[in-house]
Amino acid sequence: MSTSTLARSARQELPPTRGMNKTTDGLCPCHGRPYVDLLLRKSKIVREGERALSIRAQEDRGRAWADEHGYCVRKIWRENLSAWSDVQRPKYDAAMTAVLAGEVPALWCYALDRFSRKGAEAVVPILGKARVIFDYERLDSLDERDRRWIIDRAENAREYSQRLSYNVRGTKSRQRTEGKWLSKAPFGLVAVPGTRKLIPDLTPYMCTVADKREVTPWEIVQRVFKAIGEGMSSRALTRKLNSEGLRTGTGVPWRADAVRAIIIHPVYEGWLTHCPGGKAHRDRVPFLNNEGERVRVVTDETLPNMIPSELAERARRVLSGNQTISKAAPTPGRAVRALTSRMRCASCGSAMTLEGDSYACTRYGDGAEACADPAFVTRKAVEKYVVQTWSERLAVTDDEDPLLVAVAERWQAITRPEETQVIRDARAELKAAQAKLDKFHADDANDFYTGRSARYRIPHKNAAEARISKAETALAELVGNTGPVSLSFLLNGNGEKYWNTANASMQRDLLGLAIDTVTVTKSPGRGRRFDGMKRVTITWATPEGAEPDADGFEQAA
Fold first, then answer.
1. Where are the alpha helices (DSSP H) in 287-397?
2. Burial degree of 36 (CB within 10 A; 0-12, 13-18, 19+)
3. What CA–CA distance (Å, rounded) separates 510 from 342?
4. Which of 186, 350, 468, 472 could pair covalently with 433 via S-S, beta carbons 3.0-4.6 A apart?
5. Rounded to whole angstroms, how far apart are CA atoms 492 and 392?
6. Which residues are CB-neighbours of 54 under 8 A, at least 6 positions away?
């Protein structure tokens, strides 16, 4: 269609439309000219070799068209996003609503592919019902002669988008199979230009702490894995990092979720990852090639410098709560009094500390937060009662008693700390493997493995089941190779006698084998004789992973 034809068409009287007055609605009050809206769009990502007209240039053309054809621009709808079918376009929807409802006589768009790439379904609703001008193609939706051309060009734009999307997916799939990282590298890593392989980021930057020492992002990543693997909580670690002036890759203070994002990311072990579920499943998982195998995103030379898989799995188990760090083994500087850190006030639950010859509630006389009924008890009296109760409880245990199992586990942790830690790690790995399989079944039940993610269903299922089998075998071998633990010196009523001959540190360890906490109530009156049966409740030890069992002396005996 020629420019003169468009001009004549634009100036002719428009047919009445619903919601628009024929004399005043849709006309500029200053110039008396009909209104036109401009729909401007440019994709966020401009692909290599594609020349896309900028939004500013589109606006200039739209205003020039309006001046030439006797229109006045009412509103400009600007979009900087894709026009494909799975993208929400609120401004496009608003512009279409306005022109179809007659709020504005015409809508101008630079080109059909800027309007939509959904094909005929996007343009059919406007044909013969609303005026939409496609400037580049010189087409008018109200012109009968342009109907076929508009539909044809719209389908061409849709076909181009589909072909482009197919090519992009194919290219990305090939690059992933080659182990190339296609997006911004995670914190602590950098992508090598050309190969897109990842390497540790060893670029030093200055801390804001007093010594002004230099650190690298990769050192922070290593520190995160090591600290979490040793039992430090993510919140405690973030406080430590922030106190030293360390910052994340975006320059903001550390948070617990940032630590978690590092711990759960397989890329730090050298694996290529992706998000198969998009925003609905944000946790990164290893990418699998067509053979169902994981793909490395680092070279063989870089792999030894990455986080060891054993450390990474241990840190994840600790972070998820599947593994706890044992405190049973002796550590320098720890308390040596038999009941220190195990005493609790029954009224407020606070710890009772040793002050002189007595244990006292720590919230005694603590202002507005003071304990209502603070407990006090002499060290000699409570220790005598607890030791007697402890010895009598051990004397009545049998091989099936959970307390005896717990005592054996803790005694082994003291006498064979390295061997015990290996078994503890194996049990935690089995627990984590079972949780992984449970997660797979939950995702499967929620139809997660559908569409493009369907190819990952069987590999993920097989990997989760294989991990459980491996963990069960490893644990069975470790337990089978562990020699027996002898506790005869504590049984048959010999516990108190052995405790009296031990040094202070060993006395504390012996009580800790069977006792978690000792809770004391306030004395019924000043000067009353201590009655442990009425005032003391002992929480006995339970096997690793079991629920605590709090019993009074009557039940224990």
1. 309-320, 379-395
2. buried
3. 13
4. 468
5. 9
6. 42
User: Shortest CA distance to 241 belongs to which of 263, 256, 260, 261?
Assistant: 256
Phi, psi of 324 (to 5 degrees): -115, 150
Question: Phi first, then psi: what are they for 126, rounded to 5°?
Answer: -100, -15
d(C-alpha 149, C-alpha 140), whole Å? 10
- With 0-12 CB in 10 A as exposed, 13-18 as middle and 19+ as buried, what is 129? middle
Neighbour count for residue 454 (Cβ, 10 Å): 11
Dist. CA 17–CA 88, nearest whole Å: 28
Domains, the chain? 3-161 (3.40.50.1390), 189-320 (3.90.1750), 343-556 (no CATH)
Q: What is the pLDDT of residues 342-398, one digit of tens each?
A: 899 999 988 898 888 899 998 887 666 788 889 999 999 999 999 999 988 888 888
Confirm whether pTM is higher than 0.85. Answer: no
The label of the residue with tokens 């002050």 reads 355
State pLDDT tens for residues 141-165: 998 888 889 888 888 888 877 777 6
Token code pair at residue 74: 């009412």
CB atoms within 10 A of CB 147: 17
Distance CA 36, CA 348 (A): 73
